[in-house]
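User: Teach me something about this protein's shape.
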Amino acid sequence: MSKKVPELNSASSADIAFLLLSYFLMTTTMNQDSGLQRRLPPMPAKDQEVQDQKVNRRNIIIVKINSQDRLFAGNEPIEVSRLKDKIKEFLLNPNDDPKLPEKEMKDIEGFGQYPVSKGVISLQNDRGTSYQAYIAVQNEIVRAINEIREDFCRANYGKAYENLTEEQQEIVREAVPQLISEAEPKDVSQN
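Assistant: First, the predicted structure itself:
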């Protein structure tokens, strides 16, 4: 007499595997890409002529990072922690210094006349610049612009930028533009 071995019901095993897979997919966090958030200008029309734009020298501050991650703003060495204040002073030009950027009165739709800085931040880095130094400098530049925008919001609307309407945020971006020019990495070595 042979003894029959009972079979296992494997249908429920597939259900359990599916539930486990679902659980791990829902509870696992994925690495998120980090980077710089920038809105690029629209592509020019194919028939548009390229114009050579001249920018007054006083309207440009050159921020350089060399291969040893040393930072220079306007050809003088500076610590990353002081860059934000340097950029704010440059863009705001509170004392109308003739060595700092000009301001142009612009008629901003929905707001009126406002003196807008013509300041441009030119960022140059060396091929040997570390990614950490590059990101730290970018963060300080953006932090300076965001603080100027926040001050504008508080002074003119009495609330934070994030609490403004889309139209008001557009006015703020027009009154305090983010003009950052980035050159292709090259040898920007300085002592």
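Now, about its shape. The mean pLDDT is 83. The two ends are 95 Å apart (CA to CA). If you'd like, I can walk through any region in more detail.
User: That's plenty for now, thanks!
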